Amino acid sequence: AAKRAGGSVHCFYEADMANDAEMQIALQRDLRHALDHGGKGLELYYQPKIHAISRQTTAVEALIRWHHPTRGTVSPVQFIPIAERFGLIGALGDWVINDAFRQMRQWQKEGLRMRVAVNLSMHQLRQNDLVERISKALREHRIEPDLVTFEVTESAAMEDTQTSLRMFDQLAALGVRLSIDDFGTGYSSLAYLRKLPARQLKIDRSFIKDLQPEGDSYAIVLAVVQLAHALGLNVVAEGVETAEQERILLQIGCDSLQGFRYAKPMPAKRLAIWAASEEGPDHGAPLGF
Ligand code: C2E
Ligand code: MG
Ligand code: MG
Ligand code: MG
């Protein structure tokens, strides 16, 4: 790689870059192969969102995992950008949407009526036929639109606001819900936020991580919760890990909680068992367990 990077002197930086490019090409080839074979190796995990007071599971968020044949489990943080760069995000997004809906239907047959949140990337929002494809998938899997939420990051929602807004309005017209993900890391104007047909706002994990009484994050989280409530949105805190974070979030009036403290993302089968178990929604553990 050093030779290819030019010269006889070892240049680790360039060598790494070359490796990185090779790695990306290898991954995109493998991902394409997986998508050509019905999503072989891809799996959706599900992480509960818990109502802060009732402790009921209000929804589960679908988070993709890739069990790579030789590299082990590859993180979506790594392969979603590759899918975007190599034109695979449309096919990958379709796979996610269809597999999530298939799973919802399966759970319903087992007597579990679960609200499911699906992440959409910025590149997916740029696809003209996204709404059509979602509409088709809803019909094919016979899913009530009201049980489906799409999570869009604040920064994606703020990109090309005219187009995004039109897209969100079309999605809302289908009857699905919209959630603004990773809130606090983008730069949304209040005027635009008010126009969005969103139902939910998710506070980015970075603010929850640093949450302490009287810290900066405390002030930000409090302000975000108040803003969201003023706009009629419910608020989810993401990445809740400790009892102290939970205590503060309850005090601030955050509506729902999501994080390793309650449950990690898990395969669909395990989620169903979890939902029916002691820890699950209806038999919920008391506050502050
Ligand atoms: P996100 O939508 O903000 O998802 C939250 C991430 O935080 C997930 O990482 C989740 O596993 C992790 N998380 C949840 N609770 C905790 C906690 O208490 N502590 C810590 N340290 N982490 C926690 P994951 O699954 O690796 O996903 C990362 C990102 O990849 C997601 O961020 C989302 O932007 C993207 N992504 C995942 N699945 C999909 C998908 O199906 N489609 C698209 N377009 N993007 C996806
Ligand atoms: Mg999300
Ligand atoms: Mg998030
Ligand atoms: Mg995130």
From TrEMBL:
The keyword Transmembrane helix applies. GO terms for molecular function: cyclic-guanylate-specific phosphodiesterase activity. GO terms for cellular component: membrane. Keywords: Membrane, Transmembrane, Transmembrane helix. One of its GO terms (biological process) is cellular response to nitric oxide. It comes from the Bacteria. Residues 24-279 form the EAL domain. This is EAL domain-containing protein. It comes from Aquabacterium soli.
